[in-house]
Design a protein that fits this description.
Layout (H helix, E strand, L loop, with lengths): L12 H6 L3 H12 L8 H11 L1 H9 L6 H14 L1 H11 L5 H11 L8 H10 L9 H10 L6 H8 L9 H13 L6 H9 L1 E2 L2 E2 L3 H14 L5 H8 L4 H21 L26 H12 L19 H5 L7
Antiparallel strand pairs: 1-2
Length: 329
């Protein structure tokens, strides 16, 4: 067994020797997968299983329906690497009896990029068993439907997106269905998406904000109308924070030049006079600004907690009370 899994050319005699006892061979592989380096040996195990052929693959497929979780986990990993079509056949029968973590393992193994050759058949099986899957596994299956362009699932996805499915009514699942419809460019779903994005009940929207945003993005993809994020990525538009900063800086310079009658240093002129003496009049300052400056200079300095006893203690020292206006004591 160790010689067959070694990183070298497979000896033709080894598969014939291991074929005599396939049950013991699979038990050994199941035990090796539990080790820390078990994931690194999966390609070598898949090569050995494909070389041995149908007898061991049939036995491995029967282990999908066993009650022992360790055997089922090993069978899912090995079949996904050696023969994904067999795993798809077994998935349709065993999906309803598995726990959600086994369902998640099978769906994630079948959705890997190295199984892209069977992506179309995988999406077709997923659309058939979508109602039997656990709600925590359904979003990944819906993503695979959209990526594989499985158009036969469009009516079912429209039912989920509208919230009319018997079991799949969660908001996150509905958002995933809307995203899949947008990826598939399903023109028959355009009217439904427009209704989800714009329908109201009085003054409020009928659907949550996240679902409406997903419907608007999917509708933009279907109508070939790029959204703001796609347009910004395509044309290299600057971030909104930097552009807002430029606008605010220009507005601030305009107000400075308008108030003090001269340009600031940022705009190319001299910097306005610094107000070092707020109690004296300055030349070249409008009368309204002059009055505001003088009034601010006459006001006494008070502590923040002295605003009509809203913040701070009720009893103060003599020095603090002398700094308070008479009408506020």
């Amino acid at each position: 067994m160790d010689a067959a899994l070694a990183n070298r050319a497979l000896d033709p005699i080894l598969p014939r020797l291991l074929q005599r006892d396939p049950e013991r061979l699979l038990d050994r592989m199941t035990l090796l997968l539990t080790e820390p380096r078990g994931a690194e040996m999966v390609p070598a195990m898949a090569r050995l299983l494909r070389t041995i052929g149908v007898p061991v693959l049939n036995l491995l497929e029967t282990r999908l329906y066993e009650a022992r979780r360790q055997r089922v986990t090993a069978a899912i990993k090995l079949l996904a690497a050696a023969d994904p079509e067999r795993l798809l056949r077994g998935l349709a029968r065993a999906m309803a009896s598995w726990e959600w973590n086994l369902q998640d393992l099978a769906v994630s193994e079948l959705s890997r990029p190295n199984n892209s050759a069977s992506a179309v058949s995988t999406a077709f099986v997923f659309s058939a068993i979508l109602a039997d899957a656990h709600p925590m596994v359904v979003p990944m299956m819906i993503d695979q439907l959209g990526l594989a362009q499985e158009t036969t699932a469009v009516p079912q996805l429209m039912e989920i997106a509208a919230g009319e499915h018997e079991t799949l009514r969660d908001q996150y699942v509905r958002i995933k269905a809307i995203e899949a419809l947008g990826r598939m460019r399903a023109y028959e779903a355009a009217e439904l998406l427009r209704t989800l994005a714009e329908s109201r009940e009085g003054l409020t929207y009928a659907e949550p904000a996240g679902l409406r945003a997903a419907a608007e993005d999917a509708l933009a993809l279907i109508e070939n109308r790029p959204s703001f994020k796609q347009a910004a990525a395509a044309f290299g538009a600057p971030a909104q924070s930097s552009s807002g900063y430029v606008i605010r800086a220009a507005t601030f310079e305009f107000h400075l030049s308008h108030r003090f009658g001269r340009r600031s240093r940022r705009a190319g002129g001299t910097c306005p006079r610094k107000d070092d003496q707020p109690g004296r009049r300055l030349s070249g300052v409008p009368s309204e600004t002059q009055c505001r400056r003088l009034d601010k200079a006459r006001s006494p300095r008070r502590f923040p907690q002295d605003q009509f006893h809203r913040r701070g203690p009720q009893y103060r020292t003599g020095g603090q009370r002398r700094g308070i206006r008479p009408h506020a004591r």
